[in-house]
Amino acid sequence: MTATANDHTTGRAVAGEELFESLAHFVVTHDGQTPERAERIADQAVGFLVTAATATVPMVPSDDVDLGLHALILHTKEYAALCETHAGRFLHHNPKPGGGARDPKLVAASAHAMKAAGFMVFDDLWTVNGENLAQCDSDCGRPYGQV
Question: Which of 35, 118, 120, 124 is the most buried (most CB within 10 A)?
Answer without folding.
Answer: 120
